[in-house]
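User: Show me a protein chain along with its predicted structure.
Assistant: Here is one chain, sequence first, then structure tokens.
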Amino acid sequence: MPSRHGGYHAGLKYFGVLPLFDPQQGQTVLEPPAPGAGNWSGAPSVIWDDDLGKFFLYYRVRRPRPIRGGECRIAASSDGLHFDTVWSATKEQIGTSSMERSALVKCLDGQYRLYLAYVDPDTGQWRTDVCTARAPDQFDVSQRTKVFTPADVGIEGVKDPVVLILGREYHMILSYAPRPEQLSPDQQQEMHATGDVYNTGITRSASALALSRDGVHFDWIGDIFSPAGAGWDAYCRRLGSALWTPPVFTCFYDGSRSVRENYEERTGMAYTFDLRHFTCVTPEAPILTSPHASGSLRYIEALRVGDQFRFYYEYVRPDGSHELRLSTVCAP
């Protein structure tokens, strides 16, 4: 049974069980840019840099259409709660209509990389590029290079990268939009007309894996976690984070029943031994939600620092806007 410290007693038969948190007790890290639906601060990617003794947080700031994801930022903190902006880029600098969750990583060569997800202005499709810098405040988005476009792998969108290093191999988990087997001419035109195929209902949101030895050039492996076709996550299963909880990785994912819940996903959980084969443990209902408005709680970034698990997540407020929150739990 759970201990009073939030962990699990070693003598009992609990294996790979991750203590959860109460979202209502979380602390606000970032306010939304304005009140009301469509105003979000979130989609976090967080690292603890042991060499510098600092947390670094990537996040994007979003406003309702036509602005959408208008700016992405990196902020630094010594305590993981109070952050100061050290870098930013606007959608005009990138030449896009919107940016989303990207992945900030300190790589094995000591370089920092930002795996940037944005809408390709030429196609209206989500794509993923990479920028490299010597420090988190030195990224130059004009020097980014391609990781994947949808055309590279025969899909309709690729975004929201999560990058994990196992051994000396980079594992990139991506949200991807499968190409439907049959499309009418009207559907073909509609898919990318608004710059967000995930919000059309023509395809679905699934998760795929890509691998790399250098953190720059990735090989597409393919689907690893897809909507099952029914239930609360029938439209979207977007993997967002993985924690090593021996003998498994415990993973959080964003789920939605239909396209009507796009942008307002809630959180499910899965586990995997190898980051290729996943078992969903929340088939009936999400495991974490907000009590407000749409119930959305999404884009969980989970990391262990010292004797704590730290969870950063987007959380819907009563007015429909999204803030970025932090919850901490003692590690078992």
